[in-house]
Amino acid sequence: MSSQQVNVAIVGLGFGAEFIPIYQAHPNANIVAICQRNAEKMDKIGDHFGIAKRYTSYEDVLADEEVDFVHINSPIPDHGSMSIQALLAGKHVMCTVPMATTIEECEQICQLVEQTGLKYMMAETVVYSREFLFIKDMYQKGELGKIQYMAASHPQDMDGWPDYWEKMIPMHYATHVVSPVLGLVDGRAEYVSCFGSGTVRDDIQQKSGNRFAVESCHIQIAESDVAAHIWRFLYDTARQYRESFDVYGTKKSFEWALVEGESHVIHTAKKPEPEIPQRVDTPDFAHLLPEPIGKFTQSIEDASHLSFVQGGGHGGSHPHMVHEMVSALLEDRDPWPNAVQAANWTCVGICAHESATQGGAIVKLPEFTLASAKAKA
């Protein structure tokens, strides 16, 4: 890694392929390799983007001395083990969500980061989405006033998706709703209480070991008087896909659109009742990015024959995440979210499901995920 350039290998070319043109356009990044088990698919993408180094073996990627960091976009069950492998091999890691599916793997990643000084970033899209950046900007300017409550939901019917989703527990993939409620106030979850509701069909129960259709969780934020509510489902519940984040303040509140394509709503206190709500569309915040990648906050259907859309996805978050990881490496600082933050966000969901199986019992977050919060206190 030079003082002006970092070299990345992208691992997994489904969702991961969307990031290739962003890295290629970033003035301080260089894609040196791509990795995909399916060589035919990898060659098609590699040829299109002119990437010479191509690996079907992850171990070969980690052995490549030219690679500074890996951007992991593998199936969820592999996130923890692949991140651990990379850190042991001396590579920085950017990994899509969640960090892992067990507390043990989350802790091992945090320990390796602390021992090695390597950087780890969980590529959580919601906290780099245009909606979150808009709310964060309002909050930092004092426009919301004191935050009183936050809520987030992520309903999505996963029928028809890859089979491994049938083994997934809803709260084990909860970072899209945990991250905004903790990220906005830079807080850590201290403990959770979660209830399961309804039942999924027998085949999903047998594959996942989970009977609940919906899991609904309250989060107590450490060193704070604010609590938050999140809920998730994956199967057998009728609702359009939605990743939402609502925040309620003393001066203003923000509510995510109920239906995709509609405008969000800001409520302003102390106005006549009919004037309290106001429809609002959120900007892209491309001005926070280097000019060459600002355009990727909008979708660019340049490679539709390769079955993906470049940029613009997940609320325009992709170029913001790339820039954060690249900048953190060049500036030798922790990316946001770092390993401990990512572990806290991820372990909320793991602990929430444990709570649901105990009828809503309070479950405390592991001590290692609270380290940063205690250091600040």
Beta content: 15-25%
Biggest sheet layout: 9 strands, mixed
What are the secondary-structure elements, in order, as H or E? Answer: EHEHEHEHEHEHEHEHEEEEEEHHHHEH
| Secondary-structure-derived class | alpha/beta
Inertia-based shape: globular
**CATH homologous superfamily of the domain at 127-286 and 344-376 - what is it?**
Dihydrodipicolinate Reductase, domain 2
CATH class of the domain at 127-286 and 344-376: Alpha Beta
Helix count from the secondary structure assignment: 13
* Mean pLDDT over the full residue set: 93
Q: Give the strand order, joined by hyphens, for the main sheet.
A: 14-13-12-11-7-10-9-8-15
Q: Would you give the CATH topology of the domain at 127-286 and 344-376?
A: Dihydrodipicolinate Reductase, domain 2
| Backbone CA Rg | 20 Å
Number of strands: 15
Low-confidence stretches: 373-377
The CATH level-2 architecture of the domain at 127-286 and 344-376 is identified as 2-Layer Sandwich
Helix content: 25-40%
Distance between the termini: 35 Å
